[in-house]
Amino acid sequence: MSFGETLRSRRGEQSTDREARRFGEAKAGELRTAHGTDNVWELAANEGVTIRRSEWSGVDRLRLFGTYADGVITLYDAQIPVLAERLGVSESLATELVLAHELGHHVLDVSAVERTPRSPLREALSSWFGGSADERELEERAAQWFAVELLGDRLPDTARRKLRRGVGDIE
Ligand SMILES: [Zn+2]
After folding, report:
1. Residue 42 above 70 pLDDT?
2. Cα(109) to centroid of ligand 1, in Å?
3. Cβ pair 100, 150 in contact under 8 A
């Protein structure tokens, strides 16, 4: 059994989530300190991220609230009311949550922007999992923890609990 496999077998789902939480929250704290604000719109602008708004309304039951790729965040405005309703928050707060989540992908995906050095998260992910679906899952969770940390008290406890149960996964 390889080192990676040994680690993987020892790490249950809970400890994977703990690692994701540790990374996500630490990154949110770093960003807030670096820019002296927790306003997600300002943070995205300061990070040089482009924000696009799309009115695409999805197909069938596929819900996509936002995406991140190569420095561009796309917000699917027509779908965000669904997330707001699921979480019981205003549409503007749901929009901020999606933006924060996608900004999390940007921050966690430093390698795509700076190429070197690779972000500590990616290094850790590669050594633990050797690159796999688990890596993606961990990044998703880290982005979600990043967003929850960044929104802080603005996010009601009820919405926070729903997010922890996987209601309102953003992608
Ligand atoms: Zn995501």
Report:
1. yes
2. 11
3. yes
**Each residue of 113-167: pLDDT tens digit?**
343 445 666 666 666 555 555 677 888 889 999 999 999 999 999 999 998 887 7
C-alpha of residue 130 to centroid of ligand 1, in Å = 20
Please state the domain count of the chain.
1
How many Å lie between the centroid of ligand 1 and the Cα of residue 2? 29
pTM over 0.85? The answer is no
**Is 2 among the domain residues?**
no
Distance 18 CA to ligand 1 centre (A): 17
What CATH number does the domain containing 84 carry? 1.10.10.2910
Cα 146 to ligand 1 centroid, rounded to whole Å: 10
Gap between the Cα atoms of 87 and 65, Å rounded: 13
Are the CB atoms for 74 and 133 separated by under 8 Å?
Answer: no
